[in-house]
Write a structure and sequence with these properties.
The structure holds two protein chains of two kinds.
Chain A (H helix, E strand, L loop, with lengths): L2 E5 L2 E3 L21 E3 L1 H15 L5 E8 L4 H10 L3 E6 L6 H15 L3 E5 L10 H9 L3 E11 L2 E8 L2 E8 L2 E5 L11 H7 L4 E5 L12 E6 L8 E3 L2 H10 L4
Parallel strand pairs in A: 1-4, 1-6, 4-5, 5-11, 6-10, 7-10
Antiparallel strand pairs in A: 2-3, 7-8, 8-9
Helix pairs in contact in A: 2-5, 3-4
Chain B lengths: L1 E6 L2 E2 L2 E2 L2 H9 L5 E9 L3 H8 L4 E8 L8 H11 L5 E5 L2 H14 L3 E5 L1 E2 L4 E6 L4 E6 L6 E5 L15 E3 L10 E8 L12 E5 L10 H10 L2 E4 L1 H5 L20 E5 L5 H7 L4 E6 L12 E4 L2 H11 L1
Parallel strand pairs in B: 1-4, 1-6, 4-5, 5-12, 6-11, 7-11, 14-15, 14-16, 16-17, 17-18
Antiparallel strand pairs in B: 2-3, 8-9, 9-10
Helix pairs in contact in B: 3-4, 5-8
Classes of the chains: A alpha/beta, B alpha/beta.
Chain lengths: 249, 312
Amino acid sequence: MRRILVGIKRVIDFNVRVRVRPDGAGVVTDGVKMSANPFDSIALEEALRLRERGEADEVVAVSIGPNESQQQLRDALAMGADRAILVKSDAALEPPAVARVLLELARRESPRLVLLGKQAIDDDSNQTGQMLAALWDRPQATFASKIEISGETARVTREVDAGLETIEVDLPAVCTTDLRLNEPRYIKLPDIMKAKKKPLDVVELSSLGADAAPLVKIVKFEPPPQRQKGVIVKDAAELVAALKQKGLV
Amino acid sequence: MNRVLIVAEHADGRLNAAVAKCVACALTIPEADVSIVVLAAEGTAVAAAAAEIQGVSRVLLVKNPANEPALAAVLAPQVAKLADGAAFVLGPSTTFGKDLMPRVAALIGAPQLSDVMAVESATRFRRPVYAANAIATVEVPAGRQVVATVRVASFQAAPGGGTAPVETVAVDVELPRTTRFVSVSAARSDRPDLQTATRVISGGRALGSADNFKVIQSLADKLGAAIGASRAAVDAGYAPNELQVGQTGKIIAPELYFAIGISGAIQHLTGIKDARTIVAINKDAEAPIFEVADYGLVGDLFTLVPEIEKLL
C-alpha cells in the first residue's frame, strides 16, 4: 500500500485577530473559531491530488491534540482523506515531541511520503518536518511549491530566498508545503455526511511511547509594540520635502 | 563561558549579510565565545569574510564538494558533529537556516527557538508567535544545548574589521546521498538584496500587471533601492515569489520603506514592522496601511510615483 501521511494541527482560524490575554499567560481562545492550520490543508490537498494522479493508494490524516481536534480530522476526511488518527494530548506538544510522535506513526504506517505544513500559524516554529526527517533518517524537501513523483523519487520545487530551487529526494521522504503549492478544495455537504462513516482512530499519547516532555517554558506573552500612526501629506512635493528633511533621500 | 557556533550561509563565494546579524545576536548572550562554521566546496573567500566580523573568535572551514549547493540533509550531520561542546548553535532565520537548523536540533537532541528577536539572559529569549501578534518570552533549561534561528530584522549587523583565525577542519561523518540538487532559478539582479537593503520599494495588487511594475523599478533605480511585493501581487503573477514581503515571505527592516498600491493586510504588516520609516501610497484613504505609515499619500500611484521620482 503506497500511503501518504498528512499532519493536521488545530489552530486559531487565520482570519481571527489574535489578542494576548490581559494576564499574559496566553492568547484569547474563548469563543474563538478554530480551524486546521492553513499550510496543513495545502498538504492534505496535495496528498489528495497525488492519490488522484495514481501516486498513492491511501491518504491518512493525523492530528496530535485535544479531543476537539476530531473536528479538523472530520473536515480532512470530508475533503477526501481515507482515514484519520488522533493522538490525544491535552498538553500542547513542542516540535521535537511532535516529530517523535510522527516518527512512531511513520514506523507503524510505513508511508512513502509524509506531507506537513511548513509551519503552524500559532507558534510559527517551522521545525516539525525537518525534525521528523532527521529522526527518521530520510530526506526532507521543505517549502514546496511543486511536487512530482516518479518511481521511487520525488522532484520538489522549493520557495527559497534566492528564487525557486529544485531538488530530487529518494522516497520515503518528508515534504513541507508552502503557500503556492495548491489551493485546497472546498468541502461539499454530501462529503461531510460520507466522512462520518470513515474510520477515525483515537489513541492516547502515552500509548505510543514517544518522549513528549516539554523543554521550553513559556514565561509570558505580550502584545507587540504598536507603530504610531503618522501624517497624511497632501502631494508628492510635500512627501519628498519631508523625506529630504529627515535625511532619508 | 557560553560557546556559540554560527552556521554561515553563503552562495557564489559570498557570505550572506545575515551572518553578521547572527553574530550580533550571539554577542548579546552572556559570556559568549563565538565561532562561525563555513561548510563549502572551497570556501576560502567566505571564511575570510566571516573572519572579518568583529566579535568572532574563530572560523572553522569544512571543505567538501558535497557542501555546495547547500542541502540540509548533507550539512546537518556535519554541523551536529561540530556542535559538540557548543552551548548554542545559531543560524539565520532565512530559508537556508529554517531548512537546516531544525534538522541539526533533532540530530543533537536539542530544542530549537525559532526567530529569536532578543536575548534576555543565557536561558531567556524573546520570539514572535501568531504572526507577530504576540511576543513570547521563553526559557530553556540551564546547561542544555539550544539551537536557534535568528530573526535578522531584529539585529544590526556586527561591524567588520575583525581578524579571527581560520582553521580548516575535517569532519568525519557519513553523508546521505538520498537528496540531490537539481537546479535553482534565481533572478540575477544588480539591485541590493531585499533582506538587507536600507531602502525598499514594494508594489501591490493595485499595480495591475507585471508590466506596470516598471513604475516601481524606475523609482527603485533612482533611490538605489531593493524591490519587494505584497503577497497579492505575487499571487497575481506581477512579481516573482522571492520578492514577497510579509509573514510568509521576507521580514525586513529597511531605513525607508515605500508601500505602493498595497492595502496593508496583517500578513504584510508583519513583514515591515521594524522598518524605520514607512511611506504608503494608495488611492483608498481607508486602507489599513495608513494606520502604520509615517507618511501617507492618497491618490493614483501611476501619477504620484513618477512625480516623486522627478522631485528626487
